[in-house]
Design brief:
Layout lengths: L7 H7 L12 H15 L11 H19 L14 E6 L4 E5 L7 H6 L3 H9 L1 H4 L3 E3 L5 E3 L14
Antiparallel strand pairs: 1-2, 3-4
Helix pairs in contact: 2-3, 3-5
Length: 158
């Protein structure tokens, strides 16, 4: 069983914006975000929907980047002042800014992912894993190609 072992150096090489000032992310902070992603957002085993470990690694990198933007890149909580969504309006004279966090039709989770460009790409890339594609057998029982589950054999059919 292959699992993704997070490598902060490889992550920062692929996403250099998290390795340059003012967003220099410590390895501990990146590891912490990976732990959150791998325990709550995406299954890190071959039993999950994403069976290819290379593809799963890329998805985890997107999730780590998304979480770092949402929850801050600093190990010091007081320095993490991330906005609560995308900027939808901004003014310079007398400073006005407006952020959007709208729940679209269909999925409340979609709005959470669409707050950052990394989350939006993750949401788009995982679309095939959120929809079931069943291919029927002669008994009427199908199997999901997206999850790679073997055909179900029910004695006597259904």
């Amino acid at each position: 069983m292959a699992v993704v072992v997070f490598d902060p150096t490889a992550f920062k090489t692929e996403y250099p914006e998290f390795n340059t000032a003012p967003n220099v992310v410590s390895d501990a902070r990146a590891d912490s975000m990976f732990l959150i992603a791998s325990t709550t957002l995406l299954d890190n085993t071959d039993n999950g929907p994403v069976m290819d470990v290379t593809q799963r690694t890329q998805l985890f990198y997107l999730l780590v980047a998304h979480l770092l933007l949402l929850y801050g890149t600093s190990d010091t909580p007081m320095l993490n002042n991330a906005p609560p969504g995308r900027i939808s309006s901004a003014t310079q004279g007398t400073v006005t800014s407006q952020f959007e966090y709208q729940v679209p039709q269909g999925s409340a989770m979609m709005a959470w992912y669409l707050q950052t460009k990394y989350g939006a790409l993750f949401w788009t890339a995982t679309a095939p894993f959120r929809s079931a594609k069943y291919f029927g057998l002669s008994s009427g029982v199908g199997y999901s190609k997206a999850y790679g589950v073997a055909p179900v054999n029910i004695p006597g059919g259904v």
